Structures are given as structure tokens and as C-alpha cells.
Amino acid sequence: MGNGRATEGQVGLKLKDAEPGLHGHVLSEGDQKSKKVFNSLMSGAFAGAVAKTAVAPLDRTKIIFQVSSNRFSAKEAYRLIYRTYLNEGFFSLWRGNSATMVRVIPYAAIQFCAHEEYKQLLGSYYGFQGKALTPLPRFLAGSLAGTTAATLTYPLDLVRARMAVTPKEMYSSIIHVFIRISREEGLRTLYRGFGPTILGVIPYAGLSFFTYETLKKLHAENSGRAQPYPIERLGFGACAGLIGQSASYPLDVVRRRMQTAGAMGHSYTSIIHTMREIIREEGLIRGLYKGLSMNWVKGPIAVGISFTTFDLTQILLRKWESSVNVER
Known about the structure:
With 328 residues, the chain is mostly helical. Helices cover 80% and strands 0% of the residues. Helix 6 runs antiparallel to helix 7.
């Protein structure tokens, strides 16, 4: 009798762990969907904030070189960082990071959440529901996610670029940047450089997500472990960032030139015109690939941290929800 009751209790406990909805609050399909979207948004926002803050000084330095005609080298980049530190203080290396956060938090939240949704949609369309996508849908999911996020948050990216390359006296705050640009250059200026941004985002986001998801899939198939260790995730993300940023870098330079044209005294009318001017004044490699070596340091670190933080935050949120449901 006692053993029978003990067995029943153990079975009941297992059922409770496996199907918390039967013993606690039953969530409708819509509630479950909303919770999943909310978790993706929160995880993406946190991942973006952590990653961008970690590399903010390098990012600011890269932008300053991208929008100027000065030659780039690791030595010159170090000198610029050191001069900025001496003249303006340590925290000036993060100047523009508040604008970066205003943009990156919604951008990363939308991008990661959209990626999860596009994966489901494409999986359903191509007949891979619940399974890993094949290469083409995997690339499309990343490209569509990046395009969605970039379209919705682009003016914030332009504001961040302006704040990164101008002295504090020119723009006192994010709101001040919006007001001055709108009044002096027109509202259309807030979307200047949007074309090269989207053209760059398609290969960048597509290849980044594709590479990361592919490496995770290969790891699961060859290691026998469903989940990689955090350090392995960082490595996969670093590879993804290296490939994605190298493929789209010239368009990133064009985007920055067009975004900061008004503040730097230049006038660029189109993507082709901007490329021609850069190549004419600085050369193909020195102009369109200026700062790429810094991006090979910054990019893999940022993307690795971003992907890893997103995955681990998602796992932690799922574990927390399971423990809450079990307690109920």
C-alpha cells in the first residue's frame, strides 16, 4: 500500500512537471503566443544593450574614421581613443551610447523577435514546422528580421551617428538632434542613407543568423548535445559576425557618410554618387573598407555577445516560467 501510494505520488509529480497547465493556470494558445513574443522582445533588448555597450568605444572610433578622409590604421585608432580619453575623459569614449541604446534596444528586440516569427512562418511554408530550416529559408529569416528592425528604427541610427561624430556643443541631447535636423535639414534627412542600410542589412543579418543557426545545427549533430556551452555560442556568434560584417561593410561606410553629410559639410545625393566620391578621394580599398580591421575585432565580439546573451536569457526565462508553473 505504502509503495503504491509513493509510486502514485511520483507519477503525479512527473505529470505536474511535464504538464503544468493541467495543475495550474491553463494558458490559451493566444496567451502562450503573447508570452513567447514578450520573452523574445525582452531577451533581444537585453542582448542588444549588453553587446553594444561592451564595444561602444570601438564603435565610436570606427564611425569617426568612416566619415572622415583620414587614413585608418590600428595605431591611429589607438591614438584617437587615447586623445579622446585625455581631452574629454574616460566616459567620453561612450559618447553617443545613450542614443545607441535608444536605437539598439528596440532594434535588437524587434530583430530577434521577428527572427523567431519568420522562422515559424517559413518553417510552416516550406514544411519544416518544428524542425531546423534548410539553408535558403534560414538565410531569408535572418534577412527579413534585419530588414524589419532597420526599417522601424532607422531615424534613431542616424541620430546615433550624428552624436558620435560631433562635439558635445553641437548636439546636447537626442531630442536636440531630432529638433535641429528637422528644422535645418528637413524631416526627410532622418531617412538619409536608408537605401544602403537596407542593402547592407540583407546580407549582414541574413549571413549572421544563417551562420549562427547553421553552426548550432552542426554542433548538435556532431557533439550529441542539444545545447552548446556558452563559450561555444560566443565562438559561433563571432564567426557569424565576422562573415556578416565583412560582406556588407562597404555599404556600412556609404550609410555613415550619407547620415553625417549635413554635420560634416558634405553633400551626397545617392548611393552611387557617395561611392564614387569616396573612391575618387580615398581609393577603393582605403575608402570603402576603411576601419574594417577594427570591425573584425569589434563585430565578432558584439555579435557573439548578442547571440549568446539572447539564447541564455531565453533559456533562463523558460526555466523560470517552468519553476513558477510547478509551484502553482
